[in-house]
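Hi! If you just cloned this repository, the fastest way to understand the data is to look at a raw example. We've pasted two of them here, unedited. The first protein comes first, obviously.
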Amino acid sequence: MYEIIGRLLSRERIRSIGLMLDRAGVNILPEAFVGFIFVLGFLFSLLMLLVLIQIPSLNDFFQSVVFGMVKANPDMLKSVNTLTLVFETIFSFLAVYIITILLTYVFLNLRIDDRKKQVENVLPDFLQLAAANVRAGMPIDQAMWYAAKPEFGLFSKEVEMVAKRTFGGEPFAQTLDRLAIRFDSRQLKRSLSLIKQGLSSGGEMAEILDRTATDARNLQIMQKEISASLLTYVIFIVFAAVMGGPFLFGVSQKLIGVLEYIFSKLPASSTQAMPTGGIAGIGLSLRPTAPSVGAGQFTLFAIGAMIVTSIFASIIIATISTGSKKNGVKYIPLFALASIFIYLMVSLVLDYWFAGILK
C-alpha cells in the first residue's frame, strides 16, 4: 500500500528521495518511505483535528477567525460552524504535513552528516591498511575487502556490502561508484575517483592509496586547526545568544512592568501636559504616558526573538565548527531552552528584588 501511494510522486522526486535515503543508510524503497510518511501525516492530522475540536479555547479562536473573514457576507454567517470545521481541517492537514516533512528532512540530513563524519574519521587509516595489503601482493578489490576491519565500524560494513558485489561479477569501477553514493563525503568521492583513475592508467596503487591517506589526514588536521582558531568567536556567539540577550530581555520586561505599575497608581491629573520650557518664545510641553507595549506582550516578543536568535546562532556555530550549517539543527533546542530558562530566571530574580518596592 505504501508503495502505491509513493508512486504518486514524479520519478525525479522519487530518485532524489532515494539518493537521500541511500546516503542516510535507510535501506527502504523510496516509494514505500514516501507512502509511510504520507499515511503517518494523515493519522497525525486527524489527531490534531480532534484536539482542535475538543479544546473550547482553540475552537473559539478559529471560529472568531472565520467570523472575521465572512462577516461581510450575511449568507455565509449562517454556516459559520461548518466553515470553522473546514478551516480547522485544512489548517490541521497543512500544519501537520509541513512539520512532518521538515522533521523527516532534518532527521535524514542529521543521519547523512553523522555517517559522513564516521567515514572521514577512519578513511586515512583504511586507505593506509589497503595500501599495505596491495604491497603484500593482493589485488585492489581484495585489499579493500581485508582492510575493512571491525574497528572501522560503519565504513567496514559498507565496504563489505559492495565488495560482495565485486566477487559476484560486478565491475570494480561500478562498485566504487556504488560506495561513493552511499555517503555524502567529498573526501571519500575524491579518494575513490583517484583509485579508479589509477586502475585505468595502470598506476602504482599502493603509492596512490598512501598519498590519498596522507592528504585526507592533513585535511582533518587543518580543519581542527581552523576550528580551534575560531573558538573565540564561538564562545562570543554562545554567550550573546544564551546569556546576554535573555538577560537584557529580562531587564527590559521588568522595566516595562514597573512603568505600568507606576502609571496605574498615578492620578489622572498628574499625567496632564507639563511645561518644560522653550526656545525663543516657543513653549514645549511633556505628557508622560504609560508604555504602549505591555509586559505580557513583550514577553511573547522576547521568547520569539530568543528562538530566532538561537536558530541563527546554531547555524553560525555549526558552520564555524564543522563547515556544514545542517549540523546546527541539533543545537537549536538546547540554545532555545537555555535562553528561555535564563530569561525566566532573570525575571524571577528581578520580581523578588522589586517585590518590596511595588507593594
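Ok, and the second one:
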Amino acid sequence: MPSFRDDYDFPMDMEDVDLMMNSSDYIPIPDQENVGTAYIRISLPELNVQKCLQFQLGESIWHAKQQILASFGADLRDGYNYGLYYPPQNGKAGKFLDEERLLREYPLTGPIGYLEFKFKRRVYRSMELNTRKLKQIHTKANLKQFMDAVKHANKEKVDKYVTKGLDPNYVDIDSGESPLTLSCTLSPEKCRSMIITLVSGGAHMDFRNRHGFTPIHKSALTSNSEAIKTLLDLGASPNYKDLRYLTPLYYAVTRDDPVCSEMLLNERAVIGTTDEQGWFEIHQACRSGKVQALEHLIYYGADMDVQNASGNTPLHVCAVTNQESCARVLLFRGANKVIVNLNNQTPYEAAIIAGNLELAEIIKGHSSAEIVPFREIPQYSNRRKLINYTANFRTLAKCRSETRLNLSMMDSRFFDPDGSFRQYSTSSDCYSVTNSDSPRSMSSSSIYSGPANNGGSGSSSNAHPHHHPHQRQKQSQHGKPCSRRRLYAALPNRVFICTKKFKPTEPGDLKLKKGDLVKVLHVGEHGYYEGRRETGEEGWFPCSTVEEINLNSRRRRACSVGDLDSDTEYFQRQTIKQHTSLNHMERSFVR
C-alpha cells in the first residue's frame, strides 16, 4: 500500500507546499518524529475553503473527522453527517470513507493527499446524471411520500423512488429520522428487505438521525436483532459512534434481547466505551439487571473491576440497585469485592447503606474458593479484520478472568499459517471439573475451530490434544444431530420458570409449557439456553421463554440478619459522622 509521505520519487507540488506552510494548523515536525503521520489537504466545497491538516495514519476516519470538525465545525450545520469524500480518479467513482476504517487503509496519491469534506449524499455510480430531473424528484412532497413508504414497509414504492434517483440520505423534519433509521424500527419480518433496498439505493449506513444515532444504534435501541444482523451482513461496523461517542453495544446491553449484544460482540464490537459519568457497558448491564448481557460481556473480556467516575465497580452498582443475579455472576466469575469507591465504601458496605441486606450477606459470605472464571476462548466472526480483534484482546487480557487462557494468545497455535485468527470455544461435552484442589481448575481441553456459521464437526487430532475441533451437541432425544452451539457453561443452581410455551423447531430443542421448571446448563448462541426439565429431559429453548426464580433468597440464615442490622447501624452512624465533618470543614473554610 503506498505511503503518504515516504517512498515517492517525484518533486512536491509547490502549490501544496505553499498551502501547507501558510496554514495556521501547520506545525513542522522532524522527519524521524513524523513516522505514521500524513498531511492531507481538506477541501470544503460548500464554504469554498481549504486547509492542510496533519493526521495520524493509525487513527480511524472518525477521529480524523473530529479533527476536521474542530477546525471547521463552527461554520457547518449537521456536521455529524459530513464525511471524508475520496474524489473520482483513474476512471473510478468517488466514495465516502467508512468512519471505522483506519486512515492508512486508503492510499492517497502525491506527497500531500487530497480529500473533500462534505455532507453525505448518494454517490451516483452507474446512472446518467440529469441535474434537472434530480431536482424535480427531491421535492418536499416526494420526500414525505418516501418516508411514508418506508414507514409502511412498501418496498415496491421505495424501490421505484431510488431507481429514479432519489437520495435516501436526509433527515425527516417531522420525525427526526432518516429513511434507514426508520426502517430499523420495522418488524423483523419486514426490516431486512427494506434495509437492503435502501442501502442498494445509496443510503449510507453511518448516516445519523436528528439525535445522532446511526441505523445500527437505532436497531440496538429497539432490540431489533434482525436489523442488526442485516446491517452487519451489509458491512456496517459494530463500532459506529453517536453524538455522545457511545457505540451500539453500550445501548444493547440495557435492552431485553441479549441476542443483540451477542451479535455485536461476535462481530468484534469494542468493549470499554464510557459516557460522561464514566459508566462502562458493564455498569449499565448491572444497573439494568441484564444478566445474560453481563455474562456475554465478561465472556468477551470486559473488566469486572472497572470503576466509573465515582469509583464504583459493577459490583457496587449491583449492591446499590439490588441486582442480586448480576452480583452472583460477578462474584462467581471473580470480581473483586474489596475495592472501595470515592466514598471509601466496599460493595458490601454500599449494599448495607442502601438497605439491601440480603445482597450484602451474599457479598460478605462469598469465598474466593467459589470463583470459577471462564475457560472458554471467545469466538468471533471471520469477516472482521484481525486488527479489530487485537484491540479486543487487549481488553480481554485486562479482565480478571484472563486465567482462562492458560497460555499466551500470541502462541503460534492460535494463528493459521495465513495469519488469520482461529476461532475457539469449548466443545459440547468437555466443560467438566477436574480432580484438582482448586475450584478454578476446570477442563478446557476441547476447543473448537471454525466460525459460528461453519457446519459440521471435526475429529480429534493427536497432534494437538488440547484443541479438539468444535462439536455441536451429540444427538437430540430422537437421535438426530443437533444444530445448536454451546458458548459457555451457565452458573450453577440457576432455576427458571417457563412464561411462554415453546414448541421445538429443530432437533435437540426442548418442549416447554407455562409453569415448567427448568435448570439451565449451558448458554448457547442466538439467545438459546440448554437446560434440563424436572422430568430429566434435556434440550434447547429461547431465553425469552423463561424467567429466573431466586430460590436462595428464601434460605437466608436468621442469625446473619441480626449481624447485618448491627452493621447497618454502624455504617449509617459513620456516614452521618462523615457528612457532619464535611459540613464543619466547609463552614470553617467560608469563615
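That's it. A detail worth noticing about the second one: The CA atoms of residues 412 and 418 lie 11 Å apart.
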